[in-house]
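Long-time lurker, first post. I've been practising inverse folding by hand and with some scripts of my own, and I keep getting stuck on stretches where the structure tokens seem ambiguous. Below is the full token string for one chain I'm working on. Before anyone asks, I'm not after the true native sequence, just a reasonable design that respects the backbone. If someone could post their per-position residues I'd love to compare against what I wrote down in my notebook.
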């Protein structure tokens, strides 16, 4: 397929596909799927070998958010029966983080619900980061606390944070349909603040919210422009009790195409399979490792993932290896230059939007998290 040969060549040169090429990846048929995975897999192996980076989520503060992000079980007015608790103490959070690290995680992601942190919240998280680094100085710490005010990214950096996550989630043109309490521009601003403070920027998307192929390509091209070091790709978990509860739009094949398109557009960036991996990729998860070089180990913020042991077995069975703390995640040019996703080519007319195949909602695969941080039960790691 000429398209795939072109995309592999461009990926190895860190050159951007055109919008038409990215749309064409999303429009491939199921018969072409293994060819698409093989092509994007070449790009993945060129930049990241067979390594899989493991990340571990610690939900520092769960639920009761004043924002109205439609996809989120912690949103204002959510009826989802999730765990709700206020800030974990630094000792509790570092204990939860230690479970993930001993399970093989290289990065700990400290997440808190809310619009953004107060300065007191930044103090709290700074104490938590210090507690985690005292236990294990080689662990990477990423903070995800919402919209940042001036100076907060610098304070987190000083406290030892390595990275900051804030996702763009969807295209600029549909952002207002998903959230009304803040804007797409607010999100871009926070990613830029993190970058400017010397934090490794992590910013990604959520697929499956009813968006078009054009929206998906838009958000991935916008991410390329923002040049984060890591791009988490979430697949919507349609929680009962949220406005998107009926949005069961994804198939395993569609998820693989989305990951392949993301890899072609961001060839040398850590592409991470995030929430919804087990729910939507299901038995196709091992194929997705040929596209992404990073996953979350264990549970998500408000839902349970498959057992950490099953994650490790899957990685080994698929012929991949867990990335160690002595291995550098990013290719040399990114690790040293602090960015450089390659040239960016945009523009052009949009391709067609194939209808997503519908299937029976797999609500049986959505399990509200009842263990780990904020409970008395052992975490999954
Ligand atoms: S995504 Fe974050 S800001 Fe939006 S509702 Fe959920 S916790 Fe609040």
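-- Answer (accepted) --
I ran through it position by position. Result:
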């Amino acid at each position: 397929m000429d398209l795939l040969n072109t995309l592999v060549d461009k990926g190895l040169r860190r050159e951007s596909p055109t919008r038409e090429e990215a749309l064409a990846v999303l429009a491939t048929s199921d018969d072409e799927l293994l060819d698409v995975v093989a092509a994007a897999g070449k790009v993945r192996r060129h930049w990241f070998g067979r390594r899989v980076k493991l990340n571990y989520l610690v939900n520092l503060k769960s639920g009761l958010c004043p924002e109205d992000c439609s996809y989120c079980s912690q949103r204002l007015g959510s009826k989802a029966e999730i765990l709700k608790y206020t800030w974990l103490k630094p000792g509790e959070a570092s204990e939860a983080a230690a479970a993930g690290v001993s399970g093989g995680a290289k990065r700990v992601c400290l997440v808190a619900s809310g619009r953004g942190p107060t300065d007191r919240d930044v103090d709290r998280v700074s104490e938590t980061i210090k507690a985690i680094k005292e236990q294990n100085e080689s662990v990477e710490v990423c903070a995800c606390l919402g919209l940042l005010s001036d100076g907060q990214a610098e304070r987190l950096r000083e406290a030892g944070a390595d990275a900051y996550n804030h996702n763009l989630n969807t295209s600029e043109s549909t952002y207002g349909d998903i959230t009304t309490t803040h804007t797409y521009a607010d999100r871009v601003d926070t990613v830029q603040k993190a970058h400017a403070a010397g934090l490794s920027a992590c910013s990604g998307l959520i697929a499956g919210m009813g968006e078009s192929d054009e929206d998906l390509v838009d958000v991935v091209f916008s991410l390329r422009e923002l040049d984060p070091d890591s791009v988490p790709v979430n697949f919507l978990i349609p929680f009962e009790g949220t406005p998107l509860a009926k949005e069961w739009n994804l198939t395993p094949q569609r998820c693989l195409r989305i990951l392949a398109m993301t890899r072609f557009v961001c060839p040398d960036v850590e592409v991470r399979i995030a929430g919804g991996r087990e729910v939507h990729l299901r038995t196709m998860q091992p194929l997705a490792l040929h596209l992404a070089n990073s996953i979350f180990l264990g549970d998500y913020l408000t839902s349970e993932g498959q057992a950490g042991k099953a994650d490790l077995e899957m990685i080994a069975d698929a012929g991949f290896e867990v990335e160690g703390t002595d291995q550098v995640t990013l290719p040399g040019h990114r690790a040293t230059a602090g960015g450089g996703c390659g040239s960016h080519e945009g523009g052009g007319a949009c391709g067609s939007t194939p209808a997503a195949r519908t299937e029976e909602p797999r609500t049986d695969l959505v399990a509200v998290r009842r263990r780990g941080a904020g409970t008395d039960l052992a975490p999954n790691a």
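A couple of notes from the structure itself: Residues 337-356 have pLDDT under 50 and may be disordered. Residues 210 and 247 are 7 Å apart (CA to CA). Happy to go over any region you disagree with.
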